[in-house]
Design brief:
Blueprint: H1 2-18, H2 25-34, H3 37-53, H4 57-80, H5 88-91, H6 103-122, H7 127-148, H8 154-174
Helix pairs in contact: 2-7, 3-4, 3-6, 4-6, 4-8, 6-7, 6-8, 7-8
């Protein structure tokens, strides 16, 4: 019963998102490429280097934990081993990994979520609101782009966002960047 509900949900929302205008294809490809875990990892590494240079070790540890979490997400994909949608995009993927949870959605949620928290904490208004909103919107667009291009089911993306949110919350509560 739950499986039927998930399939129905994925089918309905995949059809909705993939029916969006074709002129969105190139922007969605750009978003999906910028939001890939490798790029989010580079952003996290840059933040670690900056934090170490500024002697802000809690920030360095926070971004380090974000990197470890991205690695753990990759391991989780191997255990769940959900197949990806049968799409042209998936058949042309260089790295063939499992679908659940979305690594793009997870990495963007963790990296952008932490950066949004830091923007709210350290930037003056109105920049704190503008930067954090832009980061959250970008993380959401990364996930949506994964469904649009045919790389993931919506539930893969939602799981990535939710797990990313949990990781950000744990880092903020326990590491206190």
């Amino acid at each position: 019963m739950l499986k039927d509900l998930i399939v129905r949900f994925d089918t309905n929302y995949t059809q909705l998102i993939t029916s969006w205008p074709s002129w969105l294809h190139m922007p969605m490809l750009i978003i999906t490429n910028v939001g890939q875990p490798f790029v989010m990892g580079i952003v996290a590494c840059a933040m670690i280097a900056y934090a170490v240079q500024q002697a802000h070790m809690r920030l360095a540890y926070s971004m380090g934990f974000a990197l470890l979490a991205m690695g753990a997400n990759t391991l989780l994909k191997h255990f769940v081993h959900r197949t990806r949608p049968d799409t042209l995009y998936v058949s042309n993927m260089y790295f063939q990994t499992s679908s659940f949870p979305s690594g793009h959605a997870f990495g963007a949620a963790v990296t952008c979520g932490l950066l949004a928290f830091l923007a709210v904490k350290y930037l003056p208004a109105p920049w704190s609101i503008l930067v954090s909103a832009a980061l959250i919107i970008f993380a959401l667009l990364v996930g949506i782009s994964r469904v649009y291009v045919g790389a993931h089911y919506p539930t893969d993306v939602i799981a990535g966002w939710l797990l990313g949110g949990v990781v950000v919350t744990l880092i903020v509560v326990f590491v206190k960047p």
